[in-house]
Amino acid sequence: MLAKVAFLVVLAGHRAAGEPTSTTTLTVTPATLTKSTQSITIRWSNLPSPSPLDYVAVYSPPTSSDLDYLGFLFLNASVSWATGAGSLRLPRLPDLRAPYQFRLFRWPPGELSKNPRVDQDGDPLPDATHRAAVSGNVSYEGAGARPTQLHLAFADEVNQMRVLFVCGDDGRRSVRYGLAGRSEEEWKEVPAEARTYEQGQMCGYPANDSVGWRHPGFVFDGVMKGLNPGRNYSYKVGSDSGALGARPAFISHIGDISYARGNSWLWDNFFEQIEPIASNTPYHVCIGNHEYDWPLQPWKPSWAANIYNGKDGGGECGVPYSIKFRMPGNSSFPTGTGAPDTQNLYYSFDVGVVHFVYMSTETDFSHGSDQYKFIKDDLEHVNHSRTPFIVFQGHRPMYTSSNEVKDTAHREQMIQHLEPLFVKHNVTLALWGHIHRYERFCPMKNYQCLNTSSSFVYPGAPAHIVVGMAGQDYQPSWEPRHDHPDVPIFPQPERSMYRVGEFGYTKLVATRNKMTLMYIGDHDGQVHDMVEIFSQVHNNGAPDKLAGEMPQNTSLYILIAGSVMLALLLGFVAGFVVRRKRDSTRWTSVNNEES
Ligand SMILES: [Fe+2]
């Protein structure tokens, strides 16, 4: 995985003088990348007096100044580095719609402490002052023209499906689609609209700086209409992608998505990682602090002054999130700057027997706000006979036993403003992220636990589950805080039914009588926690046989949980039944129009 390689993102940049030599060589192969390219090989030779800190930095576009590298690799990763020659292999790089260039720099150990710049772990970053060699350009075949980063999402109507993809220009593009197996002459074609954003619309560093900014290309958005649930469809946007079955019904990723935090290319990397899944399975998101928070964010009540602390979004102020995704509904919130309004904040849809609601914990959710009105109105109009279960999702948790006390006021506000709606309108389950852990609470009503079992009939308040264990780094959530004896967060409170620090994901399965949520550990693929909630309305007293209902293609889930290593929060919401029908509109193949 790219994220595991010795890639570090720089934090500052300005041009530095290079020191090219006539003897040192640097070559990178292949010079032309394709979607099937699995790795890139870097070779160098004739480097005199090598140092263990000498490194190769990666650039795109080639006009980038020396300090604006995307990442770097120390040459000492090669066993022969001390001879002044060697090779390194990189996993494939994302298609950034512009060529790559590699530059070899010397970094004498005596200069290690001269550079004041450090990465997020406090380690020194290269200062790029001694350039020894430059590679030729490495380009993607058809870069810019070829649609990339395909991902699906539910649209506003049940018989529609939206596909988004990225190109390097805003020329005419369309989406062609039709029933699988039918002649393509019978397919329909719809135009795709292009959107983008500019560097000047970023709100802070590094998003608005040369070190973080790269043009995002143009995000195309096409809506396929008139679809019949229960049928298999294919579509083409001129790109290829793997074929998958129809499970899960959709994927839910509840904020802190790519962790780009102002480094634009990481968004491209993320969308390439999820494309094998997201081009065949709708991918739904809500906003997290790392897509949004910046110092001048418009809603920052006094209690949140230290919660919305301004740096988490890396200056993106929600713009890439708003353009790169397009969720149902038309929610928006002004940025208060020159940046476009923030979108994809709150929305809902039905999938089979479940009504799903998404909120933004970063924008106003208090009584009287647009978001509050939406949530209230939405919950008031749920058809409980059609969707006996309601799953509510947002980024910052309403309940956690984490020692992250900084967000305490936020949680209290959420409980004050939103929990009464959850209780009144029978929300079954509330899923949250933000805390890098899995933690399941019992059904909660104003800090009171209504049932301590892991299998129960819905008691009138939602079970809360934090599912922030997708793969972001370690967070010492459960360690005691001896300096906070008044905060009862440790040891595990009675209302916390299960909590664990392992990476993993969750899977949700719902039938008319029962909803089951499973936590699956990445390390072994096994179910480590499970809760089943029987419908209050439709429970017939005959519990379903869970084992017979579990999907067998678990490799699909394991694949994507491993591929989204940059994500903080990944909650999988899967079901056998989809949008108001027993069977899904299925997406089983995406063909390459160009081959
Ligand atoms: Fe977060």
Automatic annotation (TrEMBL):
Stretches that traverse the bilayer: 556-578
Reactions performed catalytically: a phosphate monoester + H2O = an alcohol + phosphate
Keywords: Glycoprotein, Hydrolase, Membrane, Secreted, Signal, Transmembrane, Transmembrane helix
One term under GO cellular component: extracellular region
GO MF annotations in UniProt: acid phosphatase activity; metal ion binding
One Pfam family per UniProt: Metallophos_C
Compartmental location: Secreted
EC numbers on record: 3.1.3.2
Top enzyme class: hydrolase
Domain Purple acid phosphatase C-terminal: residue ranges: 461-529
Span of domain Calcineurin-like phosphoesterase: 247-438
Domain Purple acid phosphatase N-terminal: 147-242
Secretion signal span: 1-18
Family classification: Belongs to the metallophosphoesterase superfamily. Purple acid phosphatase family.
Subunit structure: Homodimer.
Entry protein name: Purple acid phosphatase
Organism field: Eleusine coracana subsp. coracana
Lineage: Eukaryota, Viridiplantae, Streptophyta, Embryophyta, Tracheophyta
